[in-house]
Specification:
The chain has 216 residues and is α/β, with parallel strands linked by helices. It is built from 4 helices and 9 strands; from the N terminus they run βββαββαββαβαβ. The strands form 2 sheets. A 7-stranded mixed β-sheet has the order 7-5-6-4-3-8-9.
Length: 216
């Protein structure tokens, strides 16, 4: 593991911290919301023409990061874990704090499954679970418009030919991240910040950002 280093000043109200998900350089109960999209344990298919090894993508290294993420999460804080269907049962490590399983449906997933020849012998995987945890004490989400939203979101998977695409194999769509963060305020941790998309979503108006929220 890389050694911990002192914070690097980026802007007057920003700090850049160097660390890893297994040893976070943060105090206990410091984070309001965590978004985690860890590397898959099995064979994962990313963007075309974006070789994972060449861009520095770190493969699956275990699940030991979860206790560390739970340590830095505030009481009442939320953790969103994006995982594959096959691995979802292995990520239910704190069933008492599991609030919901969100359905992320990607309209372009069927064509991608056909390209990667997945779903042979079964159906094409067109939706992906997002496990929603909340650390005790549990409290209702304060929805911006006062109406509880459905646990379903439709957003296309990011591919190389899209305007939003960055040279990284695994990238969450901005539409999905804005939807996840919409009801939350406070400090957001982008735990596996491959493209930094969660940080960008956290600072947009309507998700905390310029309205008193921060990003980490």
């Amino acid at each position: 593991m890389p050694p911990r280093r002192a914070p690097i000043s980026v802007k007057p109200d920003w700090q850049l911290l160097l660390g890893d998900a297994f040893h976070l350089p943060l105090r206990d109960a410091a984070i309001d919301v965590i978004v985690a999209d860890p590397p898959y344990e099995g064979t994962a298919r990313g963007k075309r023409r974006v070789p994972a090894r060449r861009v520095g993508y770190i493969p699956f290294s275990g699940r030991g990061w979860f206790p560390e993420a739970w340590r830095v999460l505030k009481p009442g804080g939320h953790l969103y874990l994006v995982c594959s269907m096959k691995e979802s049962h292995q990520w239910r490590v704190r069933p008492a704090q599991l609030v919901d399983v969100i359905c992320w449906r990607a309209p372009n997933a069927a064509s991608l499954a056909a390209h990667w020849r997945r779903g042979i012998g079964g159906r094409a995987p067109v939706w992906q679970p997002i496990l929603h945890y909340q650390k005790a004490p549990r409290s209702p989400i304060d929805w911006p418009d006062g109406f509880v939203r459905e646990n379903y979101i439709e957003a296309s998977r990011i591919q190389s030919n899209m305007k939003e695409a960055l040279p990284w194999p695994n990238q969450l769509p901005m539409k999905l991240l804005l939807w996840l963060l919409a009801p939350h305020q406070g400090l957001v941790l982008d735990l596996f910040s491959g493209t930094g998309a969660t940080g960008r979503a956290a600072t947009r108006p309507g998700t905390g950002g310029d309205l008193g929220g921060r990003q980490c």
